[in-house]
């Protein structure tokens, strides 16, 4: 077999992967190697396995809530015993603020460790194509750290719900994401109660001041973002039926009897007393079952729906090929999804075999995450150099797990290629080069990390640099390095 052309090697490593390293050997067959990487992919690499999981993070949040409840009870007792003019509770607000700050500090430390674990996995993986897919699917099922409830759970969400399922069936990925405590808390599903459920009925009978109610957030995002996509034909009635079917899906550690069943901290728990009884109607399909199985049956059908297949195919083609996905490729990817019953490997095989993905042009502009990881890989890093560099992702506009929206980060050049954003990349490239540029010959490095795509203009600019540091900075900010 003839050796692969340099640009094919570059596409495999930069477009499908996370950026080439100087010592990456060219595979004999780049397409076959991409698929073979799934045999080398570790869903739980050491950098991640050593971190606390969702159970521990949820336990911290549950403890915080319990302290809040204790404080409220204590205040009520004190108020009932005090004279009307007394100020028995005047000292409690600072206490609560301190506890909240303490939880934030704990979560901030945990978040930093989780980000470093994610970066270490991306830098050291022997399977960069599957690793890129982890980031793709994590963004598809976006959970943002902006809420206090999820600040410590977004990392475990990716590690526990996404990584193990990227090469399986889409329904398993969908179910794992929807059942994870991070998603249930982020989209306010953990406390959603059916209006006609036994718990709601009991609340009405006793005249509770706050009546339980339905929450549509998770049901809406499942239809709009996770499966069918916007404009696919579902209605508000479908959103409500999905939300009713999901009632009772909650997180262990946050509810105690008699309102709900106890469960281990952070574990998925189905609360039968919260579930809206009766059959449901979704997209014209009747779901006679009840309990937890009802929503699971809906998710199973949604996972293989033709609209879901097209929605996912469009996003994959946009991520790997072009901001405006080639329609023929979208058709083939969607057809593979439907024909295989949502087998993700079947879809990936079509993607890797597609001629559109191997076009020599570099149509995809790197996101800040892509660019940072590829710069670190290019310079031989195996771990986050320091927290300031990890913080550079915030400067570049893409703080890890903080998209601020269930829709996740955008995946088109217009979102990342503004002049001020490019200027920040140049500044970060300069800081990175200032730390390690004296140990790297950018002139020798350039053809290894940009085989077949290095332009004469960039090679000349790097060669004429006034210092090794300047040469490396010029290489990392070069137009062909900004794209993949």
Radius of gyration: 25 Å
Note the main sheet.
Answer: 2 strands, antiparallel
DSSP strand tally = 4
- Widest β-sheet, arrangement of strands: 1-2
Secondary-structure-derived class = mainly alpha
The global form is globular
What is the count of DSSP helices, taking H or I runs of 4+ residues? Answer: 23
Distance between the termini: 26 Å
* Whole-number mean pLDDT: 92
Helix content: 55-70%
H/E element order: HHHHHHHHHHHHEEEEHHHHHHHHHHH
Which segments are poorly predicted (pLDDT under 50) over 5 or more consecutive residues? none
Percentage of residues in strands:
under 5%
InterPro entries: DUF1800
Pfam families: DUF1800 (PF08811)
Protein name: DUF1800 family protein
């Amino acid at each position: 077999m003839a050796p692969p052309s340099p640009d094919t090697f570059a596409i495999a490593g930069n477009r499908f992967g996370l950026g080439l390293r100087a010592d990456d050997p060219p595979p004999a067959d780049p397409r076959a190697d991409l698929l073979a990487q799934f045999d080398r992919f570790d869903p739980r690499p050491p950098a991640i396995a050593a971190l606390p999981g969702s159970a521990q993070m949820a336990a911290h949040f549950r403890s915080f809530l319990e302290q809040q409840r204790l404080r409220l009870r204590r205040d009520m007792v004190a108020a009932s015993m005090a004279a009307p003019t007394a100020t028995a509770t005047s000292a409690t607000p600072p206490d609560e603020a301190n506890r909240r700050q303490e939880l934030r500090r704990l979560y901030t430390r945990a978040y930093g460790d989780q980000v470093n674990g994610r970066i270490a996995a991306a830098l050291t993986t022997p399977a960069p194509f599957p690793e890129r897919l982890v980031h793709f699917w994590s963004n598809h099922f976006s959970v943002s750290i902006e809420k206090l409830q999820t600040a410590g759970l977004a990392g475990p969400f990716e590690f526990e719900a996404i990584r193990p399922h990227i090469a399986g069936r889409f329904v398993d990925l969908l179910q794992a994401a929807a059942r994870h405590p991070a998603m249930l808390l982020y989209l306010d599903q953990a406390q959603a109660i059916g209006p006609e459920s036994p718990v709601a009925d009991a609340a009405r009978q006793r005249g509770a001041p706050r009546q339980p109610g339905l929450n549509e957030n998770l049901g809406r995002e499942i239809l709009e973002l996770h499966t069918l996509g916007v404009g696919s034909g579902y209605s508000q009635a479908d959103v409500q039926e999905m939300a009713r079917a999901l009632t009772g899906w909650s997180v262990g550690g946050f509810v105690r009897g008699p309102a709900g069943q106890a469960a281990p901290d952070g574990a998925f728990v189905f609360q039968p007393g919260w579930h809206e009884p009766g059959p449901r109607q979704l997209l014209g399909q009747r779901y006679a079952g009840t309990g937890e199985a009802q929503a699971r049956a809906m998710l199973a059908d949604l996972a293989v729906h033709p609209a879901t297949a097209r929605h996912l195919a469009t996003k994959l083609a946009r991520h790997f090929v072009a901001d405006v996905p080639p329609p023929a490729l979208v058709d083939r990817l969607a057809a593979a999804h439907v024909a295989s019953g949502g087998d993700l490997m079947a879809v990936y095989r079509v993607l890797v075999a597609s001629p559109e993905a191997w076009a020599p042009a570099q149509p995809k502009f790197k996101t800040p995450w892509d660019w940072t990881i590829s710069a670190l890989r290019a310079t031989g890093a195996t771990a986050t150099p320091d927290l300031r560099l990890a913080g550079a992702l915030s400067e570049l506009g893409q703080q890890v797990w903080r998209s601020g929206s269930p829709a996740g980060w955008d995946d088109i050049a217009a979102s990342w290629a503004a002049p001020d954003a490019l200027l920040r990349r140049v500044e970060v490239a300069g800081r990175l080069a200032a730390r390690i540029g004296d140990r790297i010959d950018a002139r020798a490095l350039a053809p290894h990390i940009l085989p077949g795509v290095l332009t004469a203009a960039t090679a000349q600019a790097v060669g004429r640099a006034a210092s090794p540091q300047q040469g490396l900075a010029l290489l990392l900010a070069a137009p062909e390095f900004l794209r993949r």
